[in-house]
Amino acid sequence: LKYKGKNLMEITPLGAGQEVGRSCLVLKYKGKNIMFDCGVHPAYSGLVALPYFDNVDPSEIDLLLVTHFHIDHSAALPYFLFKTNFKGRVFMTHSTKAIYRLMLADFARVGKAATEEQIFDENDLQRSMERIEVLDYHQEVEACGVRFWSYAAGHVLGAAMFMVDIAGVKFLYTGDYSREEDRHLKGAEIPSIPPDIICVESTYGVQTHLPLYEREKLYTEVIARSLQRGGRVLCPVFALGRTQELLLLLEEYWASNPELHRYPIYYASPLAKRCMSVYQTYINQMNDKIKNKVAQGNPFDFKYIQNLAGISDFDDTGPCVVFASPGMLQSGLSRQLFDRWCQNSKNALVIPGYCPEGTLAKHVLTEPKEVQLLSGQVVPLKMSVHYISFSAHADYTQTSEFLSTLNPAKIVLVHGEANEMGRMKSALQRRFENEGKSIEIFNPKNCQTVSMEFKVDKHVRAVGKLADRIEMKKGQEVSGLLVQKGFKHTLLEPEDLQTYTQLSAGTVLQKQTIPVQIPFLALKDQMASIFSKVKLEQRKGKEVICIEPGVELHSQEDSMAVLQWKSDPITDTIADSIVAVLMQLQMKPGVKKASNGVPYRVMKSLARDQGEVDTKTGEKLFNPEATLIDEVLESIFGKVEVDSSQKAWIVNVGDVRATIDMQTHRVDCKDERVESQIRVAIKRIVQALYPIDCGC
């Protein structure tokens, strides 16, 4: 069974919207709010580096999915967890969580976070580890009513692309990804399930990378030439990520070039040993090249590369290669060595990764004649500067083929400078037009919401005894118990509830307090004249009138009574009838009472309309069924009209009209289902008043 509905999806980048840095995106759909990534901008410090969290209510975010450990995707997480009112759940892969702890500790120590504008401390970082939940690639998780799973994204160890399924609409967030296999990682997977929307990075716009072997050849040649002319080579990197790829490259190059053995290579990071242990732990997530080397020994146990804890341990006496963090030259050891070496033309700076706007690394690529040191002094820049990208971000060729293969209905571009993103959007539109595809592409700015409407089929699955008796005919009406869990709907018989769900049937005990103006003994006699099985009991000094099948009227103080019953269609109708009779006592206060204590109004309502006349007033008595049926029908079906000329009630249920004869109780209605409901209701009312066959 299925039925259609329309729903609006909203996608808002809080960071990485027409910029590179502080990746953070919020998806809102069907009442669910999901945040992807939570990073800082490497060009800024303090609160200015954070995503625009003030554009959302953190308490409304249900899930936070972090794609990988780079600081521009994860370093704002401790702040968001403990400096806002976010109460949702956080997920990332196992290896990402392990490296996240090391990366953020390094960021807090050497980065701009180690200033008076610090956005989190060591305690926040440690507490965040307790909040993070982990998942494996392809492991399906259901949390907060949302299904999601991840695919390998290449890029760095543990990087994931998240596929989210909300009510049948599938959204793929790639984060940073690369389709190219390198020396230790596989390329990003092609999801087996095509998404409806893809949010994809656009870091390199329409640029196409050189083949990997050409970049490796250029990189090693630049380093070798610089060393042989007596220079020092600085490679600014982050402690983990592409660094391991470059270390594997130089280890292999040194092994095949003995003349270079006299030049030391330093991996300058206090986290070096722990970083290597993490990589050794998760070798199973790497490619076959690394797995095959494991049989011969640890591929990350380097022969030609030494660990360097800090600048105080560095013997700067001759040509060497130093890998130092951070990668953007903002501070730390990489900045200290840059300030020391930048005025010597023999030295070389080799930048291997993407550099966001506003960073020193990006500035030196513009070939300035002078640079400002950390001390504030302005000096000439004489060292050679080389940009050889090993950044594991997809280029235009990879991204266009990736998108063309998956063929989504809509694409949202993030993580790219405005110009690069704009050029990529235009190029993709031309490609899809040539392929005859109609795909919408969006490139929002930060805090700019993209809204898109989806028309989706909502499926209802019939199970159990109900499914066995359904004949699959178009237009067939099916009735049963509809159970919704998250966005899944199941139709079943009530007796199958515990078999197919985690629910169980229960009983509703209803109570209603009603004023009573007559003695309980007299009230019991009144009930006995209406219902077939009525008895009066004493319970804990209180009088209780019991009316079969399970309705009780308990006496209370101050002329009050409590009507109590276990709810079902029959007892509900009996209770309604009792309430209608009792409420008549309150309609005219101060009325005279008969010798048995019952007001004349009630006595009249209990008489059959057989031409009887009240001996005191001479007023003709009327049928009690008319008043009670009118009141009960109105309580069940809404407003009831009275056609005096036809002596009939008229009931409107939606567009269906039904007419009920006041004397014969005959029901005329074109809708058999509504007619049946009205007939059952009238039958129960009359049976409650007079336990005899009413002929309906």
Question: What can you see in these coordinates?
Answer:
There is one protein chain. This protein has 696 residues and is of the alpha/beta class. It contains 19 helices and 33 strands. The protein has a 9-stranded mixed β-sheet. Strands 7-8-9-10-11-20-21 form a 7-stranded mixed β-sheet, with helices on one face. Strand 23 (481-485) and strand 24 form a beta hairpin. Helix 3 packs antiparallel against helix 4 (122-131) and helix 16 packs across helix 19. The longest helix is centred in the C-terminal third of the chain and has 18 residues, at 672-689. The two termini are 36 Å apart. Mean pLDDT is 85; it is low at 1-5, 588-613 and 692-696.
Q: Give helix % range.
A: 25-40%
Number of helix segments? Answer: 19
Count the strands? 33
Looking across the biggest beta sheet, what order are the strands in?
A: 6-5-4-3-2-1-22-24-23
Shape: elongated
What distance lies between the first and last C-alpha atoms, to the nearest angstrom? 36 Å
User: Uncertain regions: pLDDT < 50 for 5+ in a row?
Assistant: 1-5, 588-613, 692-696
Query: Strand content of the residues, in percent?
Result: 25-35%
Largest sheet: 9 strands, mixed
Radius of gyration: 39 Å
What is the SS-derived class?
Answer: alpha/beta
Q: Report the average pLDDT across residues.
A: 85
Task: State the gist of this model.
This protein is an alpha/beta fold and 696 residues long. 29% of the residues lie in helices and 25% in strands. Mean pLDDT is 85; it is low at 1-5, 588-613 and 692-696.
